[in-house]
Automatic annotation (TrEMBL):
Domain Response regulatory, chain residue ranges per copy: 5-119
InterPro entries: AAA+_ATPase, AAA_lid_NorR, CheY-like_superfamily, Homeodomain-like_sf, HTH_Fis, P-loop_NTPase, Sig_transdc_resp-reg_receiver, Sigma_54_int
Official protein name in the record: Sigma-54-dependent Fis family transcriptional regulator
Keywords: ATP-binding, Nucleotide-binding, Phosphoprotein, Transcription, Transcription regulation, Two-component regulatory system
GO biological processes: phosphorelay signal transduction system; regulation of DNA-templated transcription
Coiled-coil blocks: none
Organism the protein comes from: Entomospira nematocerorum
Taxonomic path: Bacteria, Pseudomonadati, Spirochaetota, Spirochaetia, Spirochaetales
Length: 456
């Protein structure tokens, strides 16, 4: 690291040079200025770690110089040197941001101590700023990675930012492939635990016994084949996050053990007696309706409430179509790069097909679709024929009216069109139409009363 660089400003030549000699000997780089104006020019040209400045000087006095410099270099520490007659001004300059002041004749040992303290504090401040800038950049990168163009995803992202700094357990729900793991990872990455582990357990992939030993570990000899002690995922995730994927699949025995860790924060390894203490936040995910599972006695209610401090529900992709094209664009960039292709985008009919398809496999299906389209494409644009056949096979309907009808009939046609798009879900349809659910129901009722039938 380069030596700290001090600027010494004093109109008295012998003081300036005496101080320079002393601080050079102490290992600092030193530059001298004979008045405030010269100092100002030097500060604007080079970078200094600290300024030692006489208060009373011709042209620009020290306290004025300080005020001028603080505007452009708010963190540059100033130590003021003052004669007995100007102590009051020196005190005032502390209020204006000077680090400290010393009366002349200067006690060099004390000045040297002040200088090194001020420089250390300055370095710390700069380091903290760098960390903050890095964190802000990191947060921005995470946000860019999680596509959230729709209002629903934006709300989810806000929730992620709110919950990330806390220790609250979170359950993420939603159909398969909606992005539950993406959201779990974002919560971890934005939390103060980001540099501690995030450990994942796929609960459905393991048998009951295996899951138990995977979560809590086992002692040597706990069961046949347990040749050595094995740490469980809870221990590995200590001080970090444990992501329990497909939590709806765990057996009643494991549910009881899990509840105990959540209540007491301690557990024993399988076959062991030693109590192990852990500090772990649990993020779980499921595509089941856990409340139904509770109602049917398949999932413990007490465990459900322990895990479900915050619930983040991710709607299926077909209910947030604004995300489809931005996601498709992100995947196109990713796979074009991976396959060394220069594909610029999609043709217009391709865009409509992607937008209108219902994506039963959600974001994962869209990702696979774009990956295969990139492989198939040998030009600059992805065309209809590059998309997997299933995207084309679903006829997508645009709203169109090819007969002359009354305004009220057209309204009804449009209401039916939107209802169909939202699988008959009246709340979603009403929201899309910009009316209340009650108004939608009234409009549907009026039409049926008029015609005796609903018109489709
Ligand atoms: N908002 C998003 N932005 C970018 N990529 C996303 C987003 N949501 C999902 N993905 C991508 O879609 C794929 C599926 O996401 P993820 O694995 O998180 O889904 P899931 O809900 O956990 O699925 P499953 O229920 O099958 O476990 C991943 O490749 C993921 O990177
Ligand atoms: Mg998943």
């Amino acid at each position: 690291m380069a030596n700290p660089h001090i600027l010494i400003v004093d109109d008295e030549k012998n003081i300036r040079e005496g101080l320079a000699k002393f601080f050079k000997f102490e290992g600092y780089d030193v530059t001298l200025a004979a008045d405030g104006q010269e100092a100002l020019d030097l500060i604007n040209k080079s970078s200094f770690s600290l300024v030692i400045c006489d208060l009373r000087m011709p042209k620009i006095p020290g306290d004025e110089l300080l005020l001028m410099v603080k505007k452009s270099h708010p963190f540059l520490p100033f130590i003021m040197l003052t004669g007995h007659g100007t102590v009051e001004n020196a005190v005032a300059s502390m209020k204006d941001g000077a680090y400290n002041f010393l009366t002349k004749p200067v006690n060099l040992e004390y000045l040297s101590l002040l200088v090194s303290q001020a420089i250390d504090r300055q370095r710390l401040q700069e380091e903290q700023e760098q960390v903050q800038t890095l964190l802000a950049k990191e947060k921005h990168a995470i946000k860019q990675h999680v596509v959230s163009a729709s209002a629903a995803m934006r709300r989810i992202y806000q929730l992620v930012e709110q919950v990330a700094p806390t220790k609250a357990n979170v359950i993420i729900t939603g159909e398969s492939g909606v992005g539950k793991e993406v959201i779990a990872t974002a919560i971890h990455a934005l939390s103060p635990r980001y540099n501690k582990p995030m450990v994942t357990v796929h609960c459905a992939a393991l048998s009951e016994n295996l899951l138990e030993s995977e979560l809590f570990g086992h002692e040597k000899g706990a069961f046949t084949g347990a040749h050595a002690m094995h740490k469980g995922r809870f221990e590995l995730a200590n001080n970090g996050d444990l992501f329990l994927d497909e939590i709806g699949e765990i057996s009643p025995t494991v549910q009881v053990k899990l509840l105990r860790v959540l209540q007491e924060r301690t557990f024993e390894r399988v076959g062991g007696e030693q109590r192990i203490e852990v500090d772990v936040r649990i993020i779980s995910a499921t595509n089941r309706n856990l409340l139904d599972e509770v109602a049917q006695d398949r999932f413990r209610e007490d465990l459900y409430y322990r895990l479900n401090v915050i619930n983040i529900h991710i709607p299926p992709l077909r209910e947030r179509r604004e995300d489809i094209l931005p996601l498709a664009g992100q995947f196109l960039r990713e796979f074009s790069g991976e396959n060394h292709k220069r594909i610029k985008g999609f043709t217009t009919d391709c865009v409509s097909m992607l937008h209108e398809f219902n994506w039963p496999g959600n974001v994962r299906q869209l990702r696979n679709c774009i990956e295969s389209a990139v492989v198939m494409c040998d030009g600059e644009l992805i065309k209809k024929e590059h998309l997997p056949i299933y995207v084309e096979s679903q006829p997508y309907r645009k709203f169109c009216i090819d007969e002359e009808i009354s305004l009220s009939r057209m309204e009804r046609h449009y209401i039916d069109f939107i209802l169909e798009r939202y699988d008959g879900n009246k709340s979603h349809a009403a929201k899309k139409l910009g009316i209340s659910r009650k108004t939608l129901q009234r409009k549907l009722q009026i039409e049926e009363d008029d015609d005796g039938t609903s018109c489709k």
